[in-house]
Design goal:
CATH class of one domain: Mainly Alpha
Helix content: over 70%
Shape: elongated
Distance between the termini: 60 Å
Order of helices and strands: HHHHHHHHH
Strand content: under 5%
CATH superfamily of one domain: Tetracycline Repressor, domain 2
Number of helices: 9
Oligomer: single chain
């Protein structure tokens, strides 16, 4: 029995697990955006991609704005979960080299999940013109910066909040550039980029 329809995505802090039907629809929406861009995101397109009867998507999110907000929460939440899991692994690592390896493994997995990254990029661009989406992404980004800040603090790195913010922005840039690399060159590109970033942004001030 499907959940009652809603026009708004749940708050990330209080959200209950998605029903299988909602997850199927949001996964289908990711593929629609990856193939057609955000302009192609319609309820009908999502229904077709999910292989569900017409009207299935609109039963949960009546408007396109509601669908976009739910998808933004879904994408940002998935990325944050991955980062939380990476943080747990990194805290057990000895030395920066191992931490770079763990981050590299996550980035390569993300690049293999092209739909997730492309959807995030499309939604980020839309957020420059949509205040609701902007606020959702700002909230998730601030939590991501807090995670990175905590990692740097635990590692005893001298830094300020601006450095953690710069590190997150740099990771975004590396991922975008990684999407443009040929598949066979992505690993080497990411290794070089992450090692340079680790050396330049986590070194004490003045070095």
């Amino acid at each position: 029995m499907p959940h009652a329809p809603t026009d708004a995505a749940p708050d990330a802090a209080t959200a209950t697990p998605l029903s299988p039907r909602r997850r199927t629809l949001l996964d289908a929406a990711l593929h629609v955006i990856a193939d057609e861009g955000l302009k192609g995101l319609t309820h009908r397109a999502v229904d077709r991609r999910a292989g569900l009867p017409e009207g299935s998507c609109s039963a949960y999110w009546r408007t396109r704005n509601a669908l976009q907000a739910a998808l933004t929460e879904y994408v940002a939440g998935a990325l944050l979960t991955d980062v939380d899991e990476l943080t747990a692994r990194i805290t057990q690592c000895d030395g920066d080299a191992r931490k770079v390896e763990e981050t590299l493994a996550l980035f390569l997995r993300w690049l293999d999940q092209r739909e997730l990254l492309v959807a995030r990029l499309e939604l980020t661009m839309a957020a420059t013109r949509d205040e609701e989406l902007r606020l959702l992404l700002v909230d998730h980004r601030s939590r991501l910066v807090d995670i990175v800040d905590g990692i740097m603090t635990a590692a005893g790195k001298e830094h300020g909040g601006a450095r953690a913010e710069a590190l997150v922005a740099s990771y975004d840039g590396i991922l975008l550039a990684g999407l443009l690399q040929p598949a066979e060159g992505r690993r080497d590109f990411l290794i070089r980029s992450l090692e340079l970033l680790s050396a330049s942004l986590t070194a004490p001030d003045g070095e």
